Amino acid sequence: MNKRILFLFFGISIITLILSISYFLLYDNSESTKKVELNLIATLGSSDIAVGSNRLIIGIQNPQRNTITANKISIDFFQEENNTSVFKFSNEGYFINWPNSKSGIFTTTVDFDTPGDWLAEITPKDGEYKNQKARIVIGVKSISSTPKVGDKIPKTNNLVAINTEELKNITSDINPLFELYNKGVDEILLSKEKPLLLLFATPGQCKSFTCGPQINIIKTLHENYRKDMYFVHIEVYDMQSRNSEGEFTEISSVIKPWNLPSEPWVFLINKEGIITDKFESFVPQIELELSIKQLFNGNT
Predict the structure, then answer these.
(1) What is the C-alpha separation between 45 and 60, in angstroms, rounded?
(2) DSSP 3-state helix, strand, coil percentages of the chain (rounded to 5)?
(3) Model confidence band, residue 210 (pLDDT cutoffs 50, 70, 90)
(4) Does the pLDDT of residue 198 top 70, yes or no?
(5) What is residue 27's three-state secondary structure?
(6) DSSP states of 148-175 as a string?
(7) Looking at residues 98-106, what average pLDDT do you find?
(8) Looking at the structure, do residues 69 and 181 belong to the same domain, yes or no?
(9) Which pTM value belongs to this model?
(10) Do both 135 and 12 map to the same domain?
(11) What's the chain's average pLDDT?
(12) Distance (Å, rounded) from C-alpha 250 to C-alpha 243?
């Protein structure tokens, strides 16, 4: 079984925990961060964080390892200077319900100006765990591994369906929408007619269990905005690589130029082929609609 994506979140959690412990041992005596009782445990779900704008995904648990909920969190960001953790800025984060679950994650958009390790101190602003705290170390790269906002997208020669019969060779979605597969990405960009929403996901074999709910949201958005933009779904796995157990075993060559470390991913792309926004992991409809409207208004 291909466990590449199955263990991604777990692997990130372990690495983050090790980095956090090391950071606290070295720098927890600084004036800006000392004497803080940490009652909660934070886990970073984002896997590609770099200088510039980033959508962070954060899970928070209590000491019993149960996921907590709150409407809003505050996040204070620190960076080391001369062996001291210096406060840089604050952000707010918001709770997102995980699909088909009562639990969820928190998300915020952060603009990092320098690479390196950043310390984030997280505080729920309401709910049962109001004003309790967690800390997490965030490793920020100089350059994003995936195409970044402002980049022109790589050449993407996706499979295109001429009729509905061909969909079984293009998508693992059990209830596919033909209009998500009848246009090539390169063809769309060449026409420069409308912007594009591009989803990378394998709903038939998604280790995060969010690809199915995500593609259903994309179908709803297609219904609402199909006159104004194109929508394309591309499988993460090669549909021809199914083994005897019915599992896909090879990453599709179509997505390799995108260098995606996880799934699902959503990219918003303007008529010139420039990425205006990108989202790792599950994105609720309201968040995507806000970004789509900003794209339409040119506020990206």
Answers:
(1) 11
(2) 25, 30, 45
(3) confident
(4) yes
(5) helix
(6) PTTSBPPP------SSGGGGGGT---SS
(7) 85
(8) no
(9) 0.85
(10) yes
(11) 88
(12) 10
Same structural domain for residues 122 and 188? no
Q: Are 271 and 284 in contact (CB under 8 A)?
A: no
Q: Does one domain contain both 119 and 241? A: no
Q: Residue 273 in contact with residue 153, Cβ under 8 Å?
A: yes
> Is 2 within the bounds of a domain?
no
Same structural domain, 119 and 168: no
Residue 3 covered by a domain = no
With vertex at residue 127, the alpha carbon angle to CA 123 and CA 133, rounded to the nearest 5 degrees, is 20
**Backbone dihedral angles phi then psi of residue 127, each to the nearest 5 degrees:** 85, -170
pLDDT at 9 (0 to 100): 45
CA–CA dist 71, 287 (Å, integer): 15
Tell me the residue range of the domain where 108 lies: 8-140
Give the end of a domain, one of 107, 140, 173.
140
Q: How open is the CA angle 113-141-150, to the nearest 5 degrees?
A: 65
Query: Residue 87: beta bridge partners?
Result: 78
Residue identified by tokens 């600084």 is 30
pLDDT score of 35: 54
Supply the DSSP string of 87-140, one letter for each residue.
EEEEEEEEEEEPTTSS-EEEEEEEEE-S-EEEEEEEEE-SSTTTT--EEEEEEE
Place of tokens 């794209």: 295
Query: What's the total number of domains in the chain?
Result: 2
pLDDT at position 38? 87
- Segments of the chain assigned E as strands: 41-44, 52-61, 72-81, 84-97, 104-112, 116-124, 134-140, 196-200, 230-234, 265-269, 275-280
The last residue of a domain, from among 125, 140, 155: 140
**Residue at 150 is within a domain:** no
> Which pLDDT score is estimated for 242?
81
Q: What is the dihedral of CA 88, 298, 264, 112, to 10 degrees?
A: -10
